[in-house]
Design brief:
Immunoglobulin-like
Length: 469
């Protein structure tokens, strides 16, 4: 049990008493408004300029500190592009460190993907033209610099990438960006007394005690009454989130990582692994307001206990408070969500090869091997399908670049065809069996990377190289 000085105990007692006296409404009233990242809607060949630089930002709510980001903002703009078009990217590195960037979920060749081997030194640029040839999905871009991806992503090199197609555009889903279609980038952090980000290098895990969403802690957003679409990406380095609504209301899960589910799935909660993305619908037709939270709903006594909590416990577990505007409706508005996908065909496809990967979370190893850029760990044939069996010494996220998969089974329980979606990241808690499709080529010079989506472990070497030919 942690020890406290008399002064600390007195201070905690006073704060606890004050918290007990404050109504929940007053605590919620002090929340900041959600910052919605700027949108770059790519049309008619518009270039996507992403300049990495250092700037000042108020992360902890009290201090202006130095952070990293894109185009003068903390974090990056949301890129929205339609399948069938070309992304004319323009990366510029104005940071004092070498940086490699990747777009997790992008289905492109290793040469155009970016990734660890495409290094930008200070002052350098790179301008690939990438064909977008994949169904509607939520991707994200981040640092993938070898041995430094965790630190650089933590400092602010992260952003969301939305791909639309004809099916998603014609669907009845909410689609007004920042109004009823909300991007949410989740990061856990730790600050010192001056508001500077604290970070521990060369560790298998990093968990902070402050949860930031789009750069703000426990924000709120006023939304139109009706259905709201939330697109979430877990940009935390190691922490997974168990997300739910604080009133135990049901949500509709409609998409994961790289595509829609065949039909919406009603859930009370879901786990979001590091690097994983989901889309959910929340019905606010009859609600006066609701908050998306991580873990269980806290009362005033839980808030008191936070002053004595163990390291890594979130000070406030609120992700976002939704405040609907307009009169309550007497009738719940229905939202029929069904999509055409080809995920079911994977269950009947010919499997070219079966591989087993065991992640040693403590030592940062895959199959007792540490990452070696000179070694090819997976050589796959383009167009083939493989079965990968994943296990881990402790629960951890796992991801692949340049390929996609469906989860065939969780701990030997076969997945339902109605719940299959294309993915590139999964939470490994026990035995996970996935079917991987390799559609994009890569080479020894520009390989893909697979392994831990916990970036702390990835930097330790819990990753491997994948060449697809």
């Amino acid at each position: 049990m942690p020890r406290f000085s008399r002064r600390q105990l007195l201070k905690s007692s006073l704060i606890s008493t004050a918290l007990t006296a404050l109504p929940t409404r007053l605590l919620a009233a002090s929340r900041p408004k959600l910052t919605v990242p700027p949108l770059i809607d790519v049309r008619r060949g518009r270039p996507i300029v992403l300049t990495m630089a250092e700037m000042g930002y108020n992360l902890d709510g009290s201090h202006l500190v130095s952070v990293w980001g894109f185009n003068g903002n903390y974090l990056g703009p949301t890129i929205k592009i339609k399948s069938g078009s070309f992304a004319k990217l323009n990366y510029h590195n104005n940071l004092p460190q070498h940086v490699s960037l990747s777009i997790q979920g992008l289905q492109a060749s290793g040469e155009l993907f970016g990734g660890a081997t495409r290094v930008l030194k200070k002052g350098e640029s790179w301008a690939p033209i990438v064909p977008i040839e994949q169904p509607a999905s939520t991707c994200w871009y981040r640092s993938s610099t070898l041995a430094n991806s965790a630190y650089q992503t933590y400092r602010g090199l992260a952003g969301m990438w939305l791909i639309e197609d004809e099916q998603s555009i014609k669907s009845p889903l909410p689609n007004k960006y920042g109004v009823d279609d909300i991007p949410l980038i989740l990061q856990d952090m730790e600050f010192n007394s001056d508001g500077l980000q604290l970070f521990r290098q060369n560790q298998p895990y990093f968990v902070g005690n402050r949860l930031l969403v789009n750069g703000s802690e426990a924000p709120y957003l006023e939304v139109p009454r009706g259905w709201v679409r939330l697109r979430l990406v877990n940009a935390s380095l190691a922490r997974a989130y168990n997300l739910r609504l604080d009133n135990e209301q049901e949500m509709t899960l409609i998409a994961q990582d790289l595509g829609f589910l065949p039909q919406g799935k009603t859930v009370k909660s879901f786990v979001l692994a590091p690097g994983e993305r989901v889309e959910i619908l929340v019905n606010l037709t009859e609600s006066e307001g609701v908050s998306l939270i991580s873990g269980h709903k806290r009362d005033v006594f839980d808030r008191v206990k936070q002053f004595f909590s163990s390291e890594g416990e979130l000070a406030d577990n609120t992700v976002l408070e939704l405040r609907p505007l307009g009169e309550l409706s007497a009738f719940a508005q229905k939202m029929e969500v069904k999509f055409e996908t080809d995920t079911g065909l994977m269950l009947k496809a010919k499997v070219a090869q079966e591989r087993t990967f065991e992640l040693d979370v403590t030592n940062g190893l895959i199959n007792q091997k540490r990452f070696d850029p000179r070694r090819i760990d997976v050589l796959a044939k383009q167009g083939s399908i493989e079965r990968w069996i994943l296990t881990s010494s402790r629960p951890v996220g796992f991801s692949v670049q340049g390929a996609k998969f469906i989860v065939e089974s969780y701990n030997d329980e076969i997945a339902q065809e109605s719940e299959l979606a294309w993915k590139d990241t999964v939470w490994v808690n026990g035995k996970i069996q996935i079917l991987v499709r390799f559609e994009q080529p890569s080479s020894n010079v520009y390989p893909f990377i697979f392994g831990s989506s916990n970036l702390m472990l990835a930097d330790m070497g819990c990753i491997g190289t994948m060449v697809v030919q």
